[in-house]
Fold this sequence. Notes:
The protein is of the alpha+beta class.
Amino acid sequence: MCGILGVIGKSQPTRSQIDKAIALIANRGPDHQDMVNIGTVACFGHTRLSIIDLSAAGNQPFQFEHLTLTFNGMIYNHHALREELRGHGYEFSSSSDTEVLIKAWHCWGQNALQKFDGFFAFAIYDREENSLHLYRDHIGKKPLYWRHWGDGIAFASRLDAVEALSQQEALRKDAVPWLFYLKYIPAPMSAVDNIFKLEAGHHLHFRNGNTMIRRWAKTFGLHDDGIRPTTTSAEDVKTAIVNAVKKRLDADVPVSTLLSGGLDSSIVTCIAAKMTKLDSFTLAIRSDGNVLQFDESGIAAKTAQILGTRHHTIMLEEADALSSIDRLFSQVFDEPFADPASVLNHLIFKALSAHSKVCLTGDGGDELFGGYRRHQGHLLAHQPLANNMLMRMMARLFGPILPDLRDTPILERLRLLKRYLMALDYAKSDGRSWLTREDVGADFFSITTDHRERFADYRHDAGRNMDPINALLSLEMIWTIPGQMMVKNDRTSMDVGVEVRSPLLDHNVIETAFCLDGRQKLQRNNGKAILRKMFHDELPQHIFNEPKRGFEMPLKSWLAGPFAHYLDVVTAPDFLNAVGLRQEVVRSWVDALHSRNATTAANHLWSLIGLKAWMDGR
């Protein structure tokens, strides 16, 4: 909902550097931009998207006594905290959550973090201590980059804004493989040398030249003693979801929802529509007059009519999507990002921005409650039959060679079988097949040993004291949600002045859901079983009968048509040498566009095109 930046230390940026950095984050906060110098040793900047208290009293950076705050996010329980702080003698000049945050810190210090219910990335400078604190929320909904600069620290909401405050850095080559494995670069790495992402749920403290980074948020579903409580009922989870939606309707601007034909967005819209008059939005894209296969506009309109929302179907042409892609790669995303669904995200948020500044989504339901094919494969892997050598051999033999295509019903079934088998192999391996998603060819590059070991540590921590299903889902929370989903939502929405709120990723919903046994969430051929059971009587029945769809863009046809010219560009020797890839391997991806594994090849080439466009845009 905002953009933040700052520098602490003697190496202060010039005014032109600050102006450039603020311009780079201005799209994140089009309603107000400002900066403050704090003596000669610090400066903070902020760009505001006004959601709570639209007056100038909510502008930032915000100062109170010896504290200066620049804050991106929302504290949902700011009303209750304001009353609690009044009991401690604090007075307020605004109704903003920003003023509550800084005075909560003044009152309780770092213990205030345990009181905050919301999402955030913020920086607090304490003039008395000459110290800087950077924080990100549990799930990493808002970005925060940082670096050492001179004798201090520079930070910002965007990678290029950090560079503007300091200096531009070279491509970090050991980050490139992750783009092909995951379609994004995971924290704490960034795409360049010497600049890092603060990880979700982490705190950076800088004082007297010393930098300390620690995890302040506990692991989901575990008490401080590492024990997972199991007393949660389905009703507890439902109550947490309803409360999460209610909190996210708090805004001084219109709130809307994204409504697909799926279960998760229908749940969020259903709850919200009972509490307020609501606009809902769905996107459909036509190509030569025909709606593309991932279109859910008809189902969404039917659902909206039953739920009673004012529904909007945004119908765009495929040319609209194609014309936005260069800017998406080179400007909207501040580092390489290759999830093709970001194209649709950006288009729908851009259209929605004319009606609403806040949008609720159903994001996180699949990752939290087990809605993907890979989760079904993981479930199968923990059945007695799957433990024998023959089953594992079948998974490793047939998984890689089954087609990725979904052009016909038969190919679609084979594609789904491939996902089951690849997930089954992951569950009995070291996790590499889940990490890669598809085989990118271990013969031409590999992730460094340190990073592979770090992934193994994540998997071990995620599974501690958990059943196999919850262990996998907690890995999604630690790895996939912050690195992929939150990045996609944040960059595509903030570029057009829209704040995304995801009730199913509410901290209390996640905590409560991880207190359930995994078998309550995921059953054979019945993903998200507990969600279906909880809301069966409140949602239109056609929702439960619809097959799962995904935003899978027609990359193969795009690469054969409007983006074909990029294939020569990304196979050029100079470019491939610059990013550390062998030409013959990339040429094999181009050749594979006409094979049964065309989807895998198209995804790799899409990642490479994105990398090239990002580098050219620097």
